[in-house]
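[job 4471] stage=fold_predict status=RUNNING
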Amino acid sequence: MIDTNFLDLLGKFDLIIRKRITSNYSGARLSTAHGRGVVIKDHRIYTPGDDFRTIDWKVFARTDKLHVRKYEEERSLTVHIIIDASASMDYGGSKYTKYDYAAMLALGYAYLAMRQNEKFQYSIFADKLYHFRPARGMHQVINMVESLNKIKPAGTSKLGEALSQYTKLIKTKSYVVIISDFLLEIDEIKRSFPKFADHEVVVLQVLDRKELDLAIEGDLRLHDAETQTMLRTFITPRLRTSYQQKLQDHILAVQRECDAYGFTYHLISTDKNIFDTFWEMLR
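[job 4471] inference complete, writing structure tokens
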């Protein structure tokens, strides 16, 4: 559950967060159109007829040759935020479930987009994809808080179907944030990620500390929130070690898929202060 205190804290941390996100975020805002803009893309040798005002005298001082600046026009961007609301995201400790934490991460990115005066669009998926109209401004942030607070995570995560549908909503190169626990078959992730290869993508894998450590022992009944199956088992140190290795292998596999397409990847534990997480992600 997101409360108004979180929005207040986002406002207080706004300057720090905006500084940290600039290097990741601004790259996605550049188009390939050349013209008189605000962002310098490159330089080229001066030729007669070029606007004398575009000469870069610092480059001339270094090279003894006249170069003119080439610009990229800065255009509006829609930031796309995709949140997993399947049943497995309802797991968590006493303070936050994985969904709660994912919702705060999503809101943080939406808030940053709002402060940049950019449109943002947020979507939720489990068995189906639900998307909301892109908009800008604080009213859209408030609407997002209300919408996310109404969601009760349920159903199976159909990441592949959701991302396949979502690509149809994106018309131009965009900045896309995907937030999930990614506790699904790696083959489904492999099929999903290529669809976003042309975009600037941030992948946030959110896990609970208990999932990462399996710090429990003894005779237990385990419940799969998505399939509703029950498993009775006895947790031993050996079983814990085996589990941790398999989970680590899966995490590394997700990260490799991100690396293959140039996506930014972060593994996030819900026991960490949310603003410490923002600081580390955006630095």
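[job 4471] summary: The chain has ten helices and ten strands.
[job 4471] exit 0
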